[in-house]
Specification:
Strand content: 35-45%
Number of strands: 21
Number of helices: 2
Radius of gyration: 29 Å
Oligomer: single chain
Shape: elongated
Helix content: 10-25%
Largest sheet: 5 strands, mixed
Structural class: mainly beta
Number of domains: 2
Amino acid sequence: MSVLSLIGKRSKCSFGLQRRPFLSCFALAAATLLLSLHVATAQLQIDITLKRTLYIAYEPLIVNVSITNLSGASLELADSGRNHWFSFQIETLDNRPVAPRPGRATDTPITLEAGQRITRSVNLTPLYPITEYGGYRIQASVYAASLGQYFNSPPLNVEITEGRVVYEKTVGVPQSENKAASIRHIALLTHRLPNSSQLYIRIQESKTGTIFCTHRLGRLVSSGPPDIVLDSQNRPHILQNVAPKVFLYSLIGLDGEVIERKTYNQTRRHKPFLKLGPDGNVATQGGEESLPEDIAAVKPLPTTADRPVPVPGADPDPNDKRPKNLLSE
């Protein structure tokens, strides 16, 4: 064997011996990086859930946010400079960011003990302008100043659409000592969800465009429109068919407040209906009032009456007040 052949083999072996430590170091560095990323990600676990993924415009969009402290020590979560300890990252499905509405309130600091998990519900509708029709991607973010980083939840997609108008009327608000003259637009809308048709009511200030409420009143099973009668104060009284021979009555104030909810059963001879009396009051006649568990157990309707939602481009209300804490109970 020639000297050149021996040198070639030795060089090849030497190169092979030199390459192994390099590959080992690279693999070790990559594993360390992945491990550090995993540990950092595991320090705070953020999860969000939605009851559904399809909403109509201006409907309360309630997000349930869970924050779990996996750092092994207590964490003080508080705003730090420009970093809000609690926030959302919202963008359209074509990656256009959605900025929060101006005038954001400061979030109350909290201390999260090791292993502690908290869950809060947040209504995104008054906080972010997610009222244009289309799809949105939502993430919750928590900033831990002591760890110097943000922790994000997995993203969830929602779609904002519009229902079909089955009734609309523009009425005046009766003047009083505390209220100036104003005009309200009342609309009933039906919306088809995957498993049912739902009835909504929207009340809007005609002049400023302020949305006082977009309530989901409940299921609508009959093919015809629901009964709606205005009383002497122009408040809408609604009677809808929510189940076979079962009707739900709702009285909604012109500021979006839910005043009354009752259920009625259809009898053999009479189907419940609304009647306006000569005194301007509305009464439910026919049928029998009842409180079946499947309807009486329904939670009260969420309301945005404490902070009406302005339409895009509308001038903000100087008396408009935001919730003191985004993590509202």
